[in-house]
Amino acid sequence: MAVEQVRAGVDVGGTFTDVVVLAARPRAVKVPTTPGDESVGVGAGLVESAGSAATVEGLAHGTTTATNAVLERDVARTVLVTTEGFADVLTIARQDRPSLYDLRVERPRHLAAEVVTVAERTLPDGRALEPLSDVEVDRVVEAVAACEPEAVAVSLLFGYAGDAHERRLTEALEGRLGVPVTRSSALLPQFREYERASTCVLNAAVAPRMAGYLGRLDERLPQAAITVMTSGGGTAGLDFVAEGPVHTLLSGPAAGVVAAGQVAASAGFADALAFDMGGTSTDVCLIVGGRPEIATEARIGGLPFGTPAVAIHTVGAGGGSIAWIDAGGALRVGPRSAGAVPGPACYGTGGRAPTVTDAHAVLGHLDVDRALGGGLRLDVAAAEGALATLPAGAGDAAGVLAVVRATMARALRRVSTERGVDPGDLALVAYGGAGPLHATALARELGCAAVVVPPAPGVLSALGLLLAPLRHEALRTVMLDAADDLGTVLDALAAEATAELARQRPGVAPTLAPVADCRYAGQSHELRVAVPPDGDLVAAFHAAHERAYGYAMRGEAVELVTARVVAEAAPLLDALPASWEQGEARPDRRRRIGGDTGAVEARVRDRAALRPGETVDGPALVEQPDSTTLLEAGERAVVDDAGNLVVHLRG
What we know:
By secondary structure, the chain is α+β, with helices and mostly antiparallel strands. Among the domains are: about 100 residues, Nucleotidyltransferase, domain 5; about 100 residues, no CATH class; about 70 residues, no CATH class; about 100 residues, 2-Layer Sandwich (Dna Ligase, domain 1). It is built from 16 helices and 35 strands. The longest helix has 28 residues. The chain starts with a strand and ends with a strand.
């Protein structure tokens, strides 16, 4: 019998690992995440979805390994090597306070265990002002060795402009120590010494753990061509990610946003809000013209990193978020989560604290007769017991949902109204295992035009991994007049980006897109602008500045600070699936549930039974293996031709 060859997308979340396998009809499963070794859960999900006899020939993977390492400060002992006089670059940072009026606030602790300084100095034009001597190289190597590091970060002042000193130190350290060494001029050749040093240290600190995980995954799937999702909305090969794990700090959320943009477009909406509520957190992002915005700086655990990242805003509000009472007696939900272990009380896996999922179970939103991911079944009595631990009058199940929705609404406003974008022009694309349970309530509060729930919302991030292109962004700080001829700079970056993709996938023919970070002379921050076909970058920047800030200063000089070229190659899946394997449809039924106006009798329908053109009127629940959609009274969902559930809330 022929062995089935499959391609798969696997997204590891805080509570569940989601797997989508491409077969005759895409199949999706959710299995519990295995925190000790995520590759175990990945293997279990692939066996459950594809079968033990199938061979995985291509795997696109979203991982939280680097993310969790930073958030939990479970990182390698890292030594930073930097220019003499700049030992405190990570401590001084930007000389700002995380909370201006809080006298007890503590600045996030950086990840460098020790700092070793080097007697050298490079000028902003790349010339050596103070040469690096052989004696100094030997001294630095011995000083670093004495710190007994597990990883080293080399980030010298103006190393992006002239990398000779960084290269010499890196070669000497690698030859002497035998531990991973990250060189800032290779990882992030752009200016701003604090952000570059922070990125370099983050990369070094997670490199050993990431390399170990990727090695185990490669051993588990030796025949698979594995790519890993990066923060910038594309995938990259194992070797690239092992060398630069900082590129994966927003791995999973970025994949979901890529798919959400295509889902919105399939429902007729070019602009949307991506709303991904999982077990541990909620990720939101603005999508314009079908594509998410790419930021040139992001933060994790309060620490900045400068590698390209989808502009996602994350809050600690998920299905596993724990409800608690603060010092003032008010009900709070999150950011602490029950996670995969011990999990919500209703999972029966040892959890005792009340969570958002427990509130849904008590209100009847979840089917006690349907097995959840990994064969879990709901224990409503345990959920009731957990919620009963909250003080009388402090909050009930409905109160827990109201509080967590307020947190998520603030996050959605952060990426829309607070940036001058009217939510009334946007669709809310709801996904993640818990997203569709809250979508219409949030969309009503924000005034969104519609809610779009894709055919497989609980595993959309895993699907996004298959839809994401192989991607590399080559960049360099150049400090030029934006009116200058940029051909030489962009040609060099295009060659670099093309060569990197060819290294990861031989024979690839990528598309190339030039991008520029520009600013008015004297400004301290830049705007990312696509270089137009006619090459008039100045006009493009004026227009972008006017869109972002409401005005343009067309008489002012425009500086090109950092030039970039984005290279992309074909993904494992070139379009959204036309249909999904949803399992056997059960007959329609009714269940009493808690809603906005109290307990109501709701119609319960299986997603597998719905066909394009059909409608579902609330109060109702639409159930499927990976998620449940909640419709309140007066709401009507229509199944469109792409299989999406679309709820129009205006007009």
